[in-house]
Design goal:
Layout lengths: L6 E2 L9 H10 L18 H18 L5 E6 L2 H13 L4 E6 L2 H10 L4 E7 L22 E5 L1 E2 L4 E2 L10 E5 L16 E5 L10 E6 L16 H6 L9 H16 L2 H22 L4 E2 L10 E5 L3 H13 L2 E2 L10 E4 L6 H17 L1
Parallel strand pairs: 1-13, 3-4, 3-5, 5-8, 8-9
Antiparallel strand pairs: 2-10, 6-7, 9-10, 11-12, 12-14
Helix pairs in contact: 1-6, 2-6, 3-4, 7-9
Pyridoxal-5'-phosphate (PLP) binds next to α3.
């Protein structure tokens, strides 16, 4: 392998497209004749304005974001959005949340500090291994929004069919599936995510928000927590995460070049199939999620014996595969196979696990 890099199955920060890293390397000392690195630039400069404008436009092109949605580049990760969403969107002080795993649980805990949270469906009964039926939820009329985590990074479940919100605004945490497949933005009021799973460096969240949800009557909120402030200032009320925005912009261009989100989805389906097909025929390993709701991005699996799991992790590490330890709340192993993980990496990992199985 070029550069002697490892196959990195980390859940985040995660592997990046090599081509993008090379481009960044080439622009490191002198960005396109500016005489400086993007890290060293004023965010108020013309050259940087072009970087952020292009990043936004490329994201709009990729996802087909309608004109009545704002794109915000914010700091504080996805976690700050757990608070900003209820603070900005709870007009009536009431929201419906669907509990499908660790990340929706965290969002619920934060929203409860702001208003009334109705958990209308949960998969807690089976340790979050499936997506509950949300075709006919009990949603009070004055609910401000319905919240989902569209891909649970830790538990490895994903929504293949969005909940029936009965006309209410849908808010989705797409952190670990951002740009992994086409997305019909108009189905949502807010889509957001931290970028360090599937797009770029940590420390940046992207929020795609329908304009009519941005309120101007929230002047009592700390300014930094108001969507309006960020929207009115083109995500530059203060110094944004310039570097992360620059790198994300590169990834957007890379995705456009390889054929956009349709092409990316085809590749992701193919990659995940290699892994799930292996799990389904294995006598030693098994996936923890029901087949219908399996994530294309995060694949938790176990042997059923924690000691043997630990042995597998050591074995794969020795063979050059990093970060396969499952999250402590699920145990076992987890392979995160985000956009930038090449299919060769997945095939090589499966071969390694097959070898382990044959030896045990
Ligand atoms: C990682 C993750 C978060 C938290 O992201 P931070 O950027 O670390 O705050 C939230 N939601 C999901 C689904 C995640 O995968």
């Amino acid at each position: 392998m070029k550069y002697n890099r490892t196959y990195n199955f980390s859940a985040g920060p995660a592997t990046m497209p090599e081509e993008v890293l090379e481009e960044i390397r080439d622009e490191m000392m002198n960005y396109r004749g500016s005489g400086m690195c993007v890290m060293e630039m004023s965010h108020r400069s013309k050259v940087y304005q072009q970087i952020i404008d292009e990043a936004e436009q490329d994201l709009r092109d990729l996802m087909g974001i309608p004109d009545n949605y704002k794109v915000l580049f914010l700091q504080g990760g996805a976690t700050l959005q757990f608070s900003m969403i209820p603070m900005n969107l709870m007009k009536n002080g009431k929201a419906v949340y669907i509990e499908t795993g660790a990340w929706s649980k965290k969002a619920i805990a934060e929203a409860k500090k702001v208003g009334e949270v109705i958990v209308a469906a949960s998969s807690k009964d089976k340790n979050y291994t499936y997506i509950p039926d949300c075709s006919d939820l009990d949603i009070p009329e004055d609910t401000d929004y319905v919240y989902i985590c569209e891909n649970e990074t830790i538990h490895g479940v994903t929504w293949n069919k969005l909940p029936n919100t009965k006309g209410h605004v849908l808010v989705s945490d797409q952190s670990s599936m951002f740009l992994s497949k086409p997305c019909n933005v108009s189905d949502y009021g807010v889509i957001y995510g931290g970028v360090q799973k599937n797009i770029g460096p940590a420390g940046l969240a992207i929020v795609i928000i329908r304009e009519d949800l941005i309120r101007d009557d929230l002047t009592d909120l700390p300014v930094y927590l108001q969507y309006k402030i960020h929207a009115d200032n083109g995500s530059m009320y203060n110094t944004p995460n310039c570097w992360a925005i620059y790198v994300c912009g590169k990834v957007f261009k890379y995705l456009k070049k390889i054929g956009g989100l349709e092409a990316m989805e085809r590749i992701n389906i193919e990659k995940a199939k290699v892994f799930y097909d292996f799990l389904d025929q294995s006598k030693l390993f098994k996936g923890t999620v029901v087949p219908e709701d399996r994530s294309l991005m995060n694949i938790p699996f176990v042997t059923g014996d924690p000691d043997l799991d630990a042995e597998v992790i050591a074995y794969t590490k020795k063979a050059g595969f990093e970060n396969l330890k499952g999250h402590k709340s699920v145990g076992g192993l987890r392979a995160s196979v985000y956009n930038a993980m090449p299919i060769d990496g997945v095939i090589a990992l499966v071969d390694c696990l097959k070898k382990f199985e044959a030896e045990h």
